[in-house]
Structure formats: C-alpha cells, structure tokens
Amino acid sequence: MEPAQGNTLSKAERLSSKKDISRLIGNGRWGVCDCVKYCYLSPNGLDFNRIMVSVPKKHFKRAVKRNLLKRRLREAYRTQKSLLRQGAGVDIMFQYDSTELMPFPCIQEAVAKILQSVK
C-alpha cells in the first residue's frame, strides 16, 4: 500500500507491527532532543517513512493529557515530514520525555530538530 502524498498521515505511515517495533527498538539509534526522546532505523525496506508516538502513563496519568500530547507530536511530524528525504524509508519512534505539558510550538521545534538529525 502506497501512502498518500502531501501533508497527510495515512495508516501505512504508522508503525504498528510488533515485529517492526521490536526491530526498531533493538537495532535503532537513540537520541534526545528537548522534551522528546527518539529512536530511528534506516532503511526500513520500504519506500516511505513510518512513525510511532508514545507518551508514558508514568508521567501523565490522565488519558486526556496523553492523547493531547500524542496529537501534538503527530501533527508536528505531519506538517514537517517533508524535511525527511522521500523514498528513504525510515522508521521513527517519538517518545515524550518530560513531566510538563509543553505547548505545541516547543514540540514542533523539537520534532524539526529530530527530523533534521535523522536525514
């Protein structure tokens, strides 16, 4: 299945297979940028990039706040995914790593730095 073009985030661009997630965590390269911890694996064997977003329950007990942060991380990636090379095939996991609820511009800046370093 080929993902849609433009600033969309289709189902194909989401990393959801347990096998692929364990391969990413086991073989990927880790890094930290501001309030986001990330892991990436390149190449993933596909023509498109895939992402996974995680917000730990340990820091945010309420699901409403966790879902808000996940939406902000996905939106930050969706609007800036053009910073990654198309056709490179990179798997990226974003893990929110702060105990504070950061505003969207801070998250967007952190995701931009991460995408620049993953290139």
Instruction: Tell me the CATH architecture.
Output: 2-Layer Sandwich
Rg result: 13 Å
Question: How many helical stretches?
Answer: 3
Distance between the termini: 24 Å
If you consult CATH, what is the topology? Ribosomal Protein S5, domain 2
Describe what this molecule looks like in 3D:
The chain has 119 residues and is α+β, with helices and mostly antiparallel strands. The chain has a single domain, classed as 2-Layer Sandwich (Ribosomal Protein S5, domain 2), CATH 3.30.230. It is built from three helices and four strands. It has helices at 18-27, 63-80, 104-118, and strands spanning 29-33, 36-41, 50-54, 91-96. The chain has a four-stranded mixed β-sheet with strand order 1-2-4-3, with helices on both faces. Strand 3 (50-54), helix 2 (63-80) and strand 4 (91-96) form a beta-alpha-beta unit. Helix 2 (63-80) packs across helix 3 (104-118). The radius of gyration is 13 Å and the shape is globular.
